[in-house]
Design a protein that fits this description.
single chain, 348 residues, mainly alpha, 73% helix
Length: 348
């Protein structure tokens, strides 16, 4: 006998999130005012830098793309009741794999070279996610600790690889450039916005369909909501948790590959300012829904791209946009963190 699980509501309200965002901007305006800057001038420059021109839109969406990948990756595991904070490591390992495939595979037609490089990035991300998955389901190791440690390992490992075995000649710690056949096409030239953005949107649709319109997705959500009941109804909890980890790492790895093949053209040490960590926040701001993640990632992309213009035009420190991001995260995401801690405190 199968048990029922309430479907995701067809109209999921974003009013609380909108209020939280407006409140974050209001607090930011007060900080600006007390710091001697004009909030109107600063925010005008911010929005103009994010949406005021074709180039601005391109920069905003370019900044939003890797965050959307990592947000979807975190969402998948969270829906299975897993707090995977190792998305950054999976993103970096996927980026390295795609960079090496793009640089060292030769003689391939562009569609095949791009596809192969992205898939290898996704496979490496999935492999990096498989390790904490096995540690959790078979040894009982808590995923918060193991995924965090795996992120640090990935950061140091990719840094070693790009500084020593795969370092290109020169002072900068970077790999050889990827072949032209591996570069993702630009979709809004002369900006850096590439096909990676379209891939991220496609994956958002795919994740939404998988979670809310397939029985396998239903099982993953059931495990996340109540693992005991799910197990009693015949759902293989361990298998579903491993699957969620693998899919999460796959998406993060593809995102890392897309950033290399679409923006940087090679792996550069420290190229990620923390896309995996931002993805966790964006996923929570987006109410753990793929559609919400798309909107939240664009918001964060706006703050990053617009913040640079705001600093250049008004001399307001770029840190203000980071303060607004932090306020949005705190005001919107705090209830999710509190609920997660309360529901999972027995695991510690």
């Amino acid at each position: 006998m199968r048990f029922s699980l309430k479907k995701s509501p067809s109209r999921f309200s974003i009013l609380p999130e909108i209020i939280a965002i407006l409140l974050a901007f209001f607090i930011g305006a007060l900080i600006l005012l007390f710091s001697g800057y004009s909030p109107l001038v600063a925010f005008s420059a911010l929005f103009r830098g994010a949406f005021g021109s074709r180039n601005a839109w391109g920069q905003t969406l370019t900044q939003a793309t890797p965050i959307l990948f990592t947000a979807l990756a975190f969402l998948l595991t969270f829906r299975a009741g897993i707090f995977n904070i190792g998305v950054e490591g999976q993103f970096l390992m996927g980026a390295m794999a795609s960079a090496l495939a793009g640089a060292y595979f030769s003689g391939l037609p562009a569609p095949l070279h791009i596809t192969l490089s992205l898939l290898l990035g996704g496979a490496m991300g999935a492999l990096w996610g498989l390790i904490p998955a096995l540690l959790k389901v078979y040894l009982g190791a808590h995923e918060v600790i193991t995924t965090m440690m795996m992120s640090y390992i990935a950061s140091y490992l990719t840094s070693y690889l790009v500084n020593y075995p795969f370092k290109a000649p020169g002072w900068v710690a970077q790999t050889e450039p990827v072949a032209k056949t591996a570069l993702l096409p630009k979709i809004l030239p002369p900006t850096q916005l590439s096909l990676s953005f379209i891939i991220s949107l496609f994956l958002a649709l795919l994740v939404s369909f998988f979670l809310f319109h397939t029985y396998l997705g239903f099982q993953i959500r059931a495990v996340g909501l109540n693992p005991e009941v799910a197990e009693n109804r015949g759902i293989a909890i361990k298998n579903r948790q491993i699957l969620a980890f693998l899919l999460s790492g796959l998406i993060a790895g593809i995102g890392g590959g897309g950033e290399i093949l679409g923006v940087h053209g090679r792996f550069v040490d420290g190229f990620s300012p923390g896309y995996g960590w931002d993805g966790i926040a964006v996923s929570l701001v987006g109410k753990l829904h793929p559609g919400g993640c798309v909107l939240a990632s664009i918001l964060f992309g706006m703050l990053r791209a617009g913040g640079m213009t705001m600093t250049r035009v008004t001399k307001v420190p770029l840190d203000l946009s980071l303060i607004i991001q932090a306020l949005v995260i705190i005001l919107v995401s705090a209830p999710y963190f509190i609920r997660a801690v309360i529901l999972r405190r027995r695991d510690f």
